[in-house]
Amino acid sequence: MNEIKDEWRRYKYQIIGIALLLLSLLMGLIKETGIAYGILLGVLILDLYIIKKNHQTITQWFRRQFPGWFDKIIMSMLLSIIIYSAGWLAGFWFLFGTINGHLSW
Questions:
Q1: Is residue 44 within 8 Å of residue 17, measured between CB atoms?
Q2: CA separation for the pair 36, 24 (Å, rounded)
Q3: Are 64 and 7 in contact (CB under 8 A)?
Q4: What is the pTM for the complete model shown?
Q5: Phi and psi for 62 in degrees, rounded to 5?
Q6: Is 57 helix (H, G, I), strand (E, B) or coil?
Q7: Which UniProt keyword terms apply here (predicted)?
Q8: Assign residue 37 a region: left if phi > 0, alpha if psi is -120 to 50, beta otherwise?
């Protein structure tokens, strides 16, 4: 039980960020794009705060918790939802950012 509390204390911002990303994914699935983009903006602000505090980013923590194929599935789902809800141009920029993030990390 103490391990769970320690994990929560150490990575609470990353856990909240992942939960918000999944909520954004759900909002994109039901075509609530305004809410989904608002949540993604909140995740961006949270990630910038985490970077300022010199902790692991949300993506770094996520990759450490799950195998690589799971990360690829989540990114593919996000890309398809962004293309479906916002069009090909937004999907292109998301894909560019995802590839850049994966190569830079």
A1: no
A2: 4
A3: no
A4: 0.64
A5: -60, -45
A6: coil
A7: Membrane, Transmembrane, Transmembrane helix
A8: alpha
